[in-house]
Design brief:
With 462 residues, the protein is α/β, with parallel strands linked by helices. The chain contains 12 helices and 23 strands. The protein binds manganese (II) ion (2 copies).
């Protein structure tokens, strides 16, 4: 071996080899893990549905609802639900909260099309619904694709009705129309933000009138009658509802080699699922482990179900109190993986990425030391010490990982919940899965990367 070759191997970073570094057994394991994930993703379009799915899975695996003033023993398994939209799973450790807790936090809300409070109208012989989009979307991607309706309506008498319609092939679905290319010369000259506006995202829901009478808006009335027959709701009930339109795409394998997964809501359910399974697979950790799946990340983590709420803090304080510890001291000794996706390098749009520091499909789980924008604004920027600790933990557990900045400096940016966790005086770094076309109705991840995320969370807990 030449001196340079020898020194290169000793001193320089290894070259990227993608999935070639995985054994056939690991690839098989990745495929099996992905099967469970695909089921979860197809049943968890919204945060409410994700909470219901994880709660059921947890109960099947011995988790019981947390009671604040109860004494728990090492190995006990509890869950806590925040308003049906966020859920925490905890496994009590041998040392309880004495050395802090180990946290994996992911979000279970994804970009989508919400309804306005007063959505129903009729125009041009069609019934439509006015919408207000949720999270960062490229609006053109959400036109002319099948949409399914998910959500909850609260009637005046306080009773509720949950709706999930359009996911099955034999059910009706909905869509947002777009202008045909023959007539789009005006539209084609506009910039993307002007060519597709928020007020254009109207959802097509019907075209038959109730009857041939002279009453007005008979098509909208007919739709309302169908909704009333089926769900017992009136137009006023839209005022106390959360109705979300999500892509009605089934999660699918992508590529001839079936190495990748295409689906709606990988951001951030491809981190939520492996972190939940890691908690479920953890039996008797040293320190108490918590997987927390939060809501509202896509709109800034505000509100009582978002990561800026004190809900998780109160839960940790309750666990601390049961151990005779001060809550703030437990937080100060805690460590967290803020589990969120990163942008995978896309060769078609290579100019947006800085190739030495971006993440790649099949290079393993992505660590982002910092997120934010501009001169590192709006980020917690993990310390060298904590990066070193997590790096050693991943190596010890045989987890393939890579570093990932979101894109070129100053080209854009984005935040995660890491900074809100850091503000509680917890050591935290972002770790997650690389995603192609993030926030599109169908996003893409790789199967081994998903498995590596699971192994990372499991490694943190154990
Ligand atoms: Mn995210
Ligand atoms: Mn996102």
């Amino acid at each position: 071996m030449s001196n340079a070759k020898e020194l290169r191997e000793k001193l320089m970073m290894k070259e990227r080899k993608g999935a070639a570094t995985y054994s056939p057994e690991t690839l098989k394991e990745a495929d099996e893990f992905a099967a469970g994930y695909k089921k979860f993703l197809d049943s968890s379009r919204t945060e409410r549905e994700a909470v219901a799915y994880v709660k059921k899975l947890a109960e099947e695996n011995g988790f019981v609802e947390f009671e604040p003033d109860k004494k728990y023993n090492p190995g006990d398994r509890v869950y806590i639900v925040n308003r049906g939209k966020a859920i925490g799973l905890a496994v009590i450790g041998k040392n309880g909260t004495d050395n802090g807790v180990r946290l994996a936090i992911a979000h279970i809300d994804s970009p989508r099309i919400d309804l306005k409070p007063n959505p129903l109208y009729q125009d041009g012989g069609l019934a439509l619904l006015k919408s207000h989009y949720y999270g960062g979307i490229k609006k053109y991607q959400w036109t002319t694709i099948p949409l399914a309706l998910h959500g909850r309506v609260v009637r005046l008498d306080g009773s509720t009705v949950d709706i999930c319609l359009g996911e099955n092939d034999d059910e009706e679905c909905f869509l947002i129309t777009d202008l045909l290319p023959h007539l789009d010369r005006d539209q084609a000259t506009k910039t993307m933000s002007k060519a597709f506006t928020g007020e254009d995202l109207n959802i097509l829901i019907g075209s038959y009138p109730l009857d041939d009478s002279d009453e007005k808006d008979l098509i909208a009335l007919n739709v309302m009658k169908i909704l009333n027959d089926r769900y017992g709701i009136t137009e006023d009930d839209f005022l106390s509802a959360e109705l979300n339109f999500c892509p009605a795409y089934k999660t699918r394998d992508i590529g001839f080699d079936r190495s990748m997964i295409g689906g709606y809501g990988h951001d951030d359910k491809c981190c939520a699922y492996p972190s939940a399974i890691a908690a479920i697979d953890t039996k008797l950790p040293e320190s108490t482990c918590i997987t927390y799946l939060t809501d509202k990340e896509e709109t800034g983590s505000d509100g009582n179900t978002g990561m800026q709420s004190d809900f998780l803090r109160y839960f940790i304080y309750d666990l601390a109190k049961a151990d005779g510890n001060e809550g703030y001291r437990v937080l100060s000794r805690s460590k967290c993986l803020s589990a969120d996706v990163n942008a995978a390098f896309d060769p078609t749009y290579a100019s947006a990425y800085e190739t030495k520091n971006c993440s790649y499909v099949n290079e393993g789980v992505v660590i982002s030391k910092y997120t934010g924008h501009g001169g590192k604004y709006d980020t917690s920027d993990a310390s060298a010490e904590f990066m070193g600790e997590i790096r050693a933990m991943l190596e010890k557990n045989g987890v393939k990982w890579q570093i990932g900045e979101l894109g070129k400096v100053d080209i854009g940016g984005g935040g995660t919940i890491a900074k809100y966790v850091a503000n509680m005086n917890v050591d935290v770094v972002d770790l997650g899965v690389a995603v192609l076309n993030m926030h599109a109705p169908m996003e893409v991840i790789s199967k081994p990367d998903l498995l590596m995320a699971y192994k990372a969370f499991y490694g943190l807990f154990n």
